[in-house]
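The protein record filed below.
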Amino acid sequence: MTYRHNGGIGGWGWFGMSLGMLLFTALLVAGGVLLFRALDRPQRPAGFADRSRPIDVRERTLSDEAGQTRARIGELTAHLHELDEETDKMRITRNTLLGLPTDRPSPKQPRIPSHRTIRSAIRSWPSSPIPAGQCGPGACARR
């Protein structure tokens, strides 16, 4: 059997050795981390489980959220009740307005008196500030 490259390893050989060293180093690091975590844990009495603590916190959180949601539902229910009452009042008002008779005569426009009528009314007053016959310029001439 002849060796290529003068008896040395080729490019794939170098690649395989490098990959093997990386995997071996990663395995050593992972083992060290796992060993450190296992030794770093505090000692607990037998049968004691600390898993209930996160459950208690979560239970308290959910209980608080449920209470807030119930309070919000109460507020929204009260607001909905107010809106229903307003809607009922508006419905009654609409029915009342629609039930009013529409054949009422329209109110008559007031008659606006003419200039002569006003002057004659002023003259008829006992203490009229304008004496008879002394109207303003051109006013008496219109008679």
